[in-house]
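Recap slide: Glycosyltransferase, sequence and predicted structure.
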Amino acid sequence: MKSNIDFPLITIQILNWNRATETVRAIESAINQSYPNFEVVVVDNGSTDGSVELISGRFPNLKIVSLSKNYGCPGGRNRGISECSGEYIFFCDNDGVLHKDAVKFAYEEISGRADCFVVTGTVREFSDEREIDVKYEIIPSETYKIHTFQGGICLIRKKVFSTIELFPDDYIYGGEEQYLSFRIMDKGYEIRKSENVILWHKKSSYARNVKNETLNSWRNKLANVYQLYPIEYFVQFLIYFVVVYPVYALKEGFFLDFLRSIPKMYSNMIKYKRIPVTRKTFKTINHIRTMLGM
């Protein structure tokens, strides 16, 4: 039987902002993982709801990285990476609950493939905690290549962040996984999805500002396309953006807000440096998307 030292250390990083109770539940699912050698690091994004006090009281030996303000999702994760001691980092949403074997299955997949740098999992939405069964025995299924990953349930080789790139720090939320996926695949590495790596995700009880979320995602999408797409595909997307996106905004009732946001989207876009991926990489990504029906 292998001992813990035969398994590399994996850090489970949980990012929190003002979700104290949900984060406690996520931590409990993390500390009950069947993988034998891991640590849990909580990164708190400047919470004001007493999260740090509650978490440190419930888990006095847990490492908590307390940030001075909310740096957003990618910014918070980036600032926690240097505090992670593991060879791999498993990023877990703070409003999620991991199956007991999630980390184990993710490691088994990534460790068996030298060219695989990210393993992402599957998310199951829940409203009632009785829908969660973290101990049921999973019948292993096949994994497959995918063109991007879900930031709230993924295992990443830590060296990605020193040899390739961090998450785009100023995106706040949305698009950061796509950006990093392009960069990883442009270096010749794979991203894979495993249906065996499971996270139950709490359906949000908060009233969401769909307009602001959509406009922010479009802002980041435009920034990604500008930075990553080869020139001819960038031009194609711009034409699509000008023709299709206003129609969607009109249907959803925020056409004028969209028009007012365009100058800021443009000025934000051009502040980045264009370092597009190769055409070969771009075609590979599109091929995977087509094969998956996306």
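The radius of gyration is 20 Å.
Residues 179 and 224 are 6 Å apart (CA to CA).
(End of recap.)
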